Amino acid sequence: MMIQQGAKKHIARWTPLAMIRFEDLIEKVRRNRPDADLELIRRAYAFSASEHKGQVRHSGEPYLGHPLEVANLLADMHLDAVVIAAGLLHDVVEDTLTTIERIEEEFGSEVAHVVAGVTKLSTIPFSSTTERQAESFRKMLLAMVDDIRVILVKLVDRLHNMRTLGHLSEDRQLRIAQETKDIYAPIANRLGMSKVKNELEELAFRHLEPKAYEALRVKVGERSRANERLIEDFRQTILPKLADAEIPIVKLDGRVKRLFSIHQKLKRQRVNLDQVYDLVALRLVTPAVKDCYAALGIIHQTWSPVPGRIKDFIAMPRPNGYQSLHTSVVSGRGFAFEVQIRTAEMHRMAEDGIAAHRKYKEGGGGALRDEQSFLWLRQMLEWHQEVGDPHEFMQSLKVDLYPEEVYSFTPTGEVKALPRGATIVDFAYTVHTDIGHQCVGGRLNGKMVPLSTQLKNGDIVKILTSQGHQPSRDWLNFVVTSRARNRIRHFINAEEKSDAMELGRKLLQQEALSHNIEILAKLTAEAVAHLEEDYGSQKIEDVYAMIGYGKISAQHVLGKLVPQSDLLERQVGNAGSPPVTQDVQSSDERITVGGFDELMVSRARCCNPIRGEKIIGFMTRGKGVSVHSVGCPNVLNRLYDPGRRIAVAWDSRVDPAPYIVRLAIQVEDRQGILADISARITGINTNIRNVEATTNEDQYGRINVTVEIRDVEHLERVLKSLRGVSGVLDVERASHEDSEQGDRVDLDTSIFR
Question: Is this model's pTM higher than 0.85 or not?
Answer without folding.
Answer: no
